[in-house]
Design goal:
Layout lengths: L2 H11 L1 H14 L3 H10 L1 H13 L6 H26 L6 H25 L8 E2 L14 H22 L7 H24 L17 H4 L6 E2 L2 E2 L1 H4 L1 H6 L7 H11 E2 L4
Antiparallel strand pairs: 1-4, 2-3
Length: 264
C-alpha cells in the first residue's frame, strides 16, 4: 500500500493522526507555527486531494456509487448530529465532552472521504432533524436522550455498512476503507453504550427506546449458514456475537426519520 493511501485509511480511524502527520510535514518544511495552523485548517482539502489520487481508478459503476451514497447520507446525519450536540450549551457533561469531540472528528473525516470518492456523483446533504420528526423533542437539552439517539445512529451505521460491504467488494480499496469505517462506527456504538451503562454490544432486538425499534429489527436472528448457533452458548450470546445487516429500504427509512430532502 502506498504512503498516501495508508494515510487516508488511517485517517478514517484517527483524524488526529492525519493532523499530526500534516503538521510534522509542514513544520519540517519550515512553516513553523503559522504553517501548522494552515495545515490543520486545510486538512479536509488535503484529505480530498489524497483520496482522489489514491483511489483514482476511473469512473465508479453505479453498483458502487449507490452504496457509497447510502453511507454518505448516514454520515451526513451523524456528523450534523454531533455538531449540533457539541454546540448545545450545557448538554454534554465536561467529563464526556472529549468522547463526542473525537466521534465528531471521525464522522467529519468519513464525510470528506466519501464526498471525495464520489465527486460530482455524491448525494445532496439532507436537512437534518435531530428530533427524529418529533420522536425525541428534548434531544438537544436532555443528555440521556442525546445518548440514546447517538447510540441508535451508530448502531444503524454499523448494520448499514455491513449490509453494503458485498456491494463494494469489487473495488479492494473502497472495500478496505468501508470496513475501516464500519469498525469505527462499532467502536463509537460500544463507547456510547458504556456511557449509558449498557453492554458494548446489541442483545437481541430489544431497545429501551421504542422509537429506535427499527434500528434493531432482525437482530434477534441466530441462524447463520443454516446453523442455529443459539445451541452453543444460548440465545442472548448468539445474538450478541453477530451484527445483522440492514437492507437499503430499512436504512433509508431510519435515515428519513432524522433528515428531510434527498433521502431516496
Amino acid at each position: 500500500m502506498d504512503r498516501d493511501k495508508k494515510l487516508i485509511l488511517d485517517a478514517l480511524e484517527n483524524p488526529d493522526g492525519l493532523e499530526r502527520a500534516v503538521s510534522r510535514r509542514d513544520a519540517v518544511r519550515g512553516g513553523g507555527m503559522f504553517g501548522v495552523g494552515v495545515a490543520l485548517a486545510t486538512m479536509p482539502v488535503l484529505l480530498a486531494s489524497l483520496t482522489r489520487r489514491a483511489f483514482a481508478q476511473g469512473p465508479l459503476p453505479n453498483s458502487i456509487i449507490n452504496p457509497l451514497n447510502l453511507a454518505l447520507v448516514l454520515e451526513y446525519l451523524e456528523s450534523d448530529f454531533y455538531v449540533a450536540g457539541l454546540a448545545a450549551s450545557g448538554l454534554i457533561p465536561s467529563s464526556d465532552r472529549a468522547v463526542f469531540e473525537q466521534v465528531s472528528k471521525h464522522e467529519a473525516a468519513h464525510v470528506v472521504f466519501l464526498e471525495s470518492v464520489l465527486g460530482d456523483k455524491k448525494a445532496r446533504r439532507p436537512t437534518f432533524d435531530p428530533t427524529g420528526r418529533g420522536a425525541f423533542p428534548d434531544v438537544l437539552t436532555n443528555y440521556q436522550t442525546f445518548l440514546a439517539v447517538s447510540q441508535g445512529l451508530e448502531d444503524t451505521g454499523v448494520r448499514a455498512y455491513k449490509g453494503q460491504a458485498g456491494n463494494v467488494a469489487s473495488n479492494d480499496d473502497i472495500l478496505t476503507a468501508a470496513l475501516r469505517i464500519h469498525s469505527v462506527e462499532a467502536r463509537h456504538a460500544s463507547e456510547i453504550r458504556r456511557l449509558r451503562g449498557q453492554k458494548g454490544w446489541i442483545t437481541g432486538n430489544e431497545t429501551d427506546v421504542a422509537a429506535l425499534a427499527p434500528t434493531y429489527a432482525g437482530e434477534q436472528n441466530t441462524t447463520h449458514l443454516g446453523i442455529d448457533v443459539a445451541g452453543f452458548e444460548g440465545r442472548d450470546a448468539a445474538t450478541e456475537a453477530f451484527d445483522e445487516p440492514l437492507d437499503v429500504e430499512a436504512v433509508l427509512a431510519i435515515a428519513g426519520t432524522f433528515g428531510t430532502g434527498p433521502i431516496s
